[in-house]
Amino acid sequence: MDQDSPVLFSRRGALAIATLNLPKALNALNLQMIDRLSAQLDDWARDDEVAAVWIDGSGDKALCAGGDVVALYEQSAAYGESPDYSYPSDFFSREYRLDYKIHTYTKPIVVWGGGIVMGGGIGIMAGASHRIVTETTRMAMPEITIGLFPDVGGSWFLNRMPGRLGLFLGLTGAQFNGADALFVGMADRIIAQARREPVLAALAELEYSLDSDVNHQLISHCLKLQELPVLQRPESVLREHFDQIQQLTDFASLPEVCAAISTYQGEDKWLQRAATTLAGGSPLTPWVVWEQLRRARHRSLADVFRMELVLAVNLCASGHFKEGVRALLVDKDRAPKWRPQYLTEIIPQQLADCFAAPWSGAHPLADL
User: Fold this and answer.
1) Are 224 and 182 in contact (CB under 8 A)?
2) pLDDT tens-digit map of 37-63
3) Exposure of 10 by Cβ count < 10 A (0-12 exposed, 13-18 middle, 19+ buried)?
4) Residues 56, 57, 66, 67: which is the catalytic one?
5) In terms of pTM, does the model score above 0.70?
6) Alpha-carbon distance 271 to 131, whole Å?
7) Is 67 a catalytic residue?
8) Angle at which helices 31-46 and 86-104 pack, to 10 degrees?
9) Where does residue 211 rank: exposed (0-12), middle (13-18), buried (19+ CB within 10 A)?
10) Is 120 a catalytic residue?
11) Inter-CA distances, 138 with 1, 35, 65, 114, 236, Å
12) In Å, how far from its chain's centre is CA 30?
């Protein structure tokens, strides 16, 4: 096994293991990683000697902190530039195919989500059959800070959270922990970070069969025995703030919701950070979040990914994404100069353009 490979593959009996292996970049996904993992999952799906798949990240800091947005930045359009849709279309279509494959995989997929799990990392984790978080887990969909939107199936899983928590998290990019992930349906078990190797060893020793349903049950029972006792789990921030978040989002229009959140005057530090992030984020992203959740509510998973590909490619062409990444990750001045600057200056046609397919001919994900 090449230890320098961006994804490491190995086997422990009938358990196949994939480890995202760019620890210095917090295992951020690039196209090479996406393609290698996708192809390997195809091979394992056909291999009768593989009963289940385990996915984790190298090191303890992160499963995956997101996608390789700097590479996307270099291929995206600044304000006023003529866009080239080819690279964003290629990148996101391959990433979303991988995410969809995980959602629909027949064999069990166990994902160890310790440390940072954000953006594209949530895309890897969200569709797995067995999603493990730990006391170190930090999750978020922080795309508002870079002028993108909560993608990788965010339209699907944010809509399935209790109340309007999904809307709030999409608008604010607020971080949440492992206990929160359990509360909102983004994880299945919380296990101590130090137990990763013992859990992996226990799964490898199970007596698997050729029946995937039986193997799902074996894994579920095994993981339940490893779970962290309730008193040792972190407090759920989202459960604690549920009623207040419901109040802040209980309005009929997006501007009213954003005004309520961004003008929060209380002393709660977590809500203060959420308010600050929303107020300083892209003025286009909240409109996209509001509309994507509305449109996706009754769509199939495949249709959700097709809609999100249109959005992702268009936002990379809009200038907002390039400006957001410049301010946060390239120049690091944290002073994005959005055009327009304010939420209320976004006109309906700008939002409509985000949902209009930018290519002629068949949709790149038409066959999902």
Assistant:
1) no
2) 999 999 999 999 999 999 999 999 999
3) exposed
4) 67
5) yes
6) 27
7) yes
8) 30
9) exposed
10) yes
11) 30, 26, 10, 8, 12
12) 14
Asked if residue 318 has pLDDT above 70, the reply is: yes
3-class secondary structure per residue, the chain: CCCCCCEEEEEECCEEEEEECCHHHCCCECHHHHHHHHHHHHHHHHCCCCCEEEEEECCCCEEECCECHHHHHHCCCCCCCCCCCHHHHHHHHHHHHHHHHHHHCCCCEEEEECCEEECHHHHHHHCCCEEEECCCCEEECCHHHHCCCCCCCHHHHHHHCCCCHHHHHHHHCCCEEHHHHHHCCCCCEECCHHHHHHHHHHHHCCCCCCCHHHHHHHHHHHHHHHCCCHHHCCCCHHHHCHHHHHHHCCCCCHHHHHHHHHCCCCCCHHHHHHHHHHHHCCCCHHHHHHHHHHHHCCCCHHHHHHHHHHHHHHHHCCCHHHHHHHHHHHCCCCCCCCCCCCHHHCCHHHHHHHCCCCCCCCCCCCCC
Which residue of the set 143, 180, 188, 308 is catalytic?
143
pLDDT, tens digit (0-9, with 9 covering 90-100), for 257-276: 999 999 999 999 999 999 99
The catalytic residue among 95, 151, 291, 308 is: 151
Q: Rounded to an integer, what distance in angstroms lies between the CA atom of residue 138 and that of residue 181?
A: 9
Pair 353, 112: CB distance under 8 Å: no
Nearest residue to 117 via CA among 142, 81, 93, 149: 142
Tens digit of pLDDT for each residue in 282-295? 999 999 999 999 99
Copy the structure tokens of residue 324. Answer: 């957001």
pLDDT at residue 90 tops 80? yes
Structure tokens at 90: 């290629």
Give, in order, the Cα–Cα distances in Å from 256 to each of 159, 185, 287: 20, 27, 12
308 is annotated as an active-site residue? no
Q: Which is catalytic among the residues 120, 121, 153, 154? A: 120
What token pair was written down for 135?
Answer: 């006391």
Q: For residue 123, which of 146, 139, 145 has the smallest C-alpha distance?
A: 139
CB of 8 within 8 A of CB of 21?
Answer: yes
144 Cα distance to chain centroid: 13
